[in-house]
Structure formats: C-alpha cells, structure tokens
Hints:
The protein is of the alpha/beta class.
Amino acid sequence: MPNKSLRILIADEQHFNRLRIERCFNQLGYYAVAPVQSLEELLILVEYASEPFDLLLVNAALAGGKLDLLDLCLDNRQLERALIYDGQQAGLAVIPAEQGQKVQVSHALLADQALIRALMARIDPVQPFVGTVISVR
C-alpha cells in the first residue's frame, strides 16, 4: 500500500505534462501532489514549505539556464529526492537510479508511468504484511 503522506512536487511549464504526471501518481495511489508551472513558483514552494517535499519531478527546460537544477536538488534540505527529466535539454549527464541516491537525471522527454513506477519502487517500496493471521472456521 502506498504511503499516502508522501509530498510530491511536479514542475513543468506544459499544463498537459503536469496533468499526465499527476495522473500517473494518482493511479499509483499518491494524491499529495502539487503541480507548478514556473521556476519562480517552484522556488517559492521549496523555500516556504513547512515540511520537505519527498520528491520533486522537474523538467530540465524549466530552469532555462537561470539556475543549476542539479545543485538546487542536491543542496536543498527541503527536497528529499528529485528526478530531473529531459536532462539532455540542459546538457545534464544521465544519473541512473542505482547511482543517484538523492537526484536522478533522465533524458526521457517526459516522466512516464514506467519511469514513475520504478522511481516509486525505490522511494516507497511495498512493505510485506507482517502480522498474525487468524482463521475462522
């Protein structure tokens, strides 16, 4: 069962992309999702959040050369983990999930269902049920 308290932030200029990614999270059982459309909105939410975000998904093009997204994600205490997609756009090298403990960079144009599912399997692994089973006859 997914941890419904995970706080997820999606940052992409394209409304359709934000909706599509949010829908992927909803299908996996995650509903605490905040979508933003600009770098300014992203920075404000991260700066003034009362609690850290568990995950940021951000389109590399959102920074538009104004900010180093990789540094933001690595150095900010308000971001537990991050996925920067369309990393080729910003000239970022791919950081695979196995190597990137905090930040993963993907050249995928959009974070699709398969990428999100694999990411969430690392962040929120399914916990096996531990308990006593009582049989009723």
